[in-house]
Write a structure and sequence with these properties.
Blueprint (H helix, E strand, L loop, with lengths): L13 H10 L14 H9 L2 E14 L11 E2 L1 H24 L4 E11 L6 E13 L18 E2 L4 H9 L2 E14 L5 H6 L8 H24 L4 E10 L7 E13 L17
Parallel strand pairs: 3-5
Antiparallel strand pairs: 1-4, 2-6, 3-4, 6-8, 7-8
Length: 277
């Protein structure tokens, strides 16, 4: 029988904690790991941060069942909560790994979902990025990089966009997200038959998709407000049917909440772009 994997209180395996201990600056033979491209790595360094190591969080989650009415458009809140909570578990474990490295933040974060062969309702949620720390050069002045929850910042911006953001005088606070799993009502047979050969808006479908997107966006915005952000940059609005069929889909809003580095901040246009050409 295989040994049971031991975990820390945050759900991070002990093997991962041992790997992170070897990555800590000053550890014998320590080297950083990163999934940043060469361009991104150099731009992050130019922005005043040094990579510490690749950090990740994972959660294999059983997504529950919720039955929708055939002819009614409605949010499936059980599924919405499951999809959000599973991602939150993965994100918190990634942040715990960064915290163990003493990182100020995590850049280039990817948040992915993959439904497994274990069953149609079992999915793995993965968060992965590169933990970074202020290089101590003093180019940023006295800046506290952790957010108001005392967590390392997280950002899904590219290395190029991260460099531009810092140079313009803004700091990332954290990735913010909102999820909404929505069932779109089926069109009744008579209505579908009457639309044959016509150019006509399907108002029922339009309204359902509009409502679902608005719910996801509002939840993302609420997370940014909780971080006391000035705004959200790099917003993506994705939709996935996953394994639920054509009339049930997830709308997922994701972006990076930001704040000015200083209260008297005025945007300064970056004057340098690093090129390897």
């Amino acid at each position: 029988m295989a040994d049971k994997i031991a975990h820390t209180a945050e759900g991070v395996p002990e093997d991962a904690m041992r790997r992170l201990a070897e990555l800590k600056p000053g550890s014998p033979g320590s080297i950083f790991t990163s999934d940043l491209s060469v361009n991104e790595f150099l731009l992050v360094k130019e922005a005043g941060f040094r990579p510490l190591g690749l950090v990740l969080g994972s959660s294999i989650y059983h997504v529950g069942l919720q039955v929708a009415r055939w002819g009614k458009s409605q949010e499936l809140d059980v599924l919405s909560q499951a999809m959000y909570h599973a991602r939150e578990l993965a994100m918190s474990r990634m942040e715990a790994e960064a915290d163990a490295l003493g990182a100020d933040g995590i850049v280039g974060v990817r948040l992915e979902v993959e439904f497994k062969e274990f069953g149609a309702d079992v999915a793995e949620f993965i968060a992965i990025g590169t933990a970074v720390k202020d290089d101590g050069s003093g180019q940023h002045g006295e800046v506290t990089w952790r957010n108001n929850k005392n967590q390392p910042f997280t950002s899904d911006l590219s290395g190029q966009d991260f460099w531009t953001l810092i140079r313009a005088g803004y700091a990332p606070l954290g990735m913010v997200m909102g999820s909404c799993v929505y069932h779109i009502a089926h069109q009744r047979f008579g209505a579908a038959l009457g639309n044959i050969g016509k150019n006509v808006e399907l108002e029922q479908f339009t309204q359902a998709l509009y409502d679902a997107r608005e719910l996801a966006m509002a939840r993302m915005q609420a997370e940014a407000e909780a971080l006391h952000a000035e705004g959200i940059v790099g917003v993506q609005l994705r939709n996935h049917s996953h394994t639920w069929g054509s009339h049930t889909t997830e709308f997922f809003a994701l972006g990076t909440a930001v704040r000015p580095l200083r209260p008297d901040h005025q945007i300064q246009r970056p004057t340098m772009v690093l090129s390897l050409d």
